[in-house]
Amino acid sequence: MNVQEKVVRSIANRRGNVILRSDLNKFGSESQVSRVINSMVGSGKLIRAGKGVFVKTKVSSITGNIIPAATLETVATETFKKLKVNVLPSKATQDYNSGKTTQLPTSLIIRTPKRKISRKLTVAGRTLEYEKNSR
User: Fold this and answer.
1) I need a labelling partner for 25 at 20 to 30 A (CA). Which of 40, 76, 101, 104 fits?
2) What is the pTM of this model?
3) How many structural domains compose the chain?
């Protein structure tokens, strides 16, 4: 079984929709795995969401176009869970969830309690934003 077959099989058998580049390092050299990932991105089987973060795709039942298999919210949650980074909802999201306001947050903003993160995640034209932790 060659590197491409190993990577494709591994991605197909994963439960989540997010694949980290580091998850695939064990299947071959860096250049071999990068070549396979780039070919999968080019063929529409994966979408690059950020540096080293890829999202599985599916075909839209409405348009027939290839779209991400997960929303930005799901991608952010899965990514930070895999990276073992604890994140919290933004102040605006917490206020809405607790009933303090009826204003819906317009974008996905998260807080990171003990570290600064600058990882840019973009899915379907939406970009994850970060909020400073105000303790």
Assistant:
1) 76
2) 0.84
3) 1
- Count of other CB atoms within 10 angstroms of residue 91: 15
Q: Give counts: helices (H), strands (E), the chain.
A: 4, 9
Residue type, 71: T
- Give the domain range for residue 60: 3-131
Q: Name, in order, each residue with C-beta under 8 angstroms of 71's C-beta and a sequence gap of 6 or more.
A: 123, 124
Instruction: Indicate the SS3 state at residue 48.
Output: strand
Q: List, for residues 18-28, the tens digit of each pLDDT value.
A: 999 999 999 99
One-letter amino acid for residue 51 of the chain: K
Q: Pairing relation of β-strands 109-111 and 129-131?
A: parallel
Coil/strand/helix, residue 18: strand
Answer whether 93's CB lies under 8 Å from 54's CB.
Answer: no
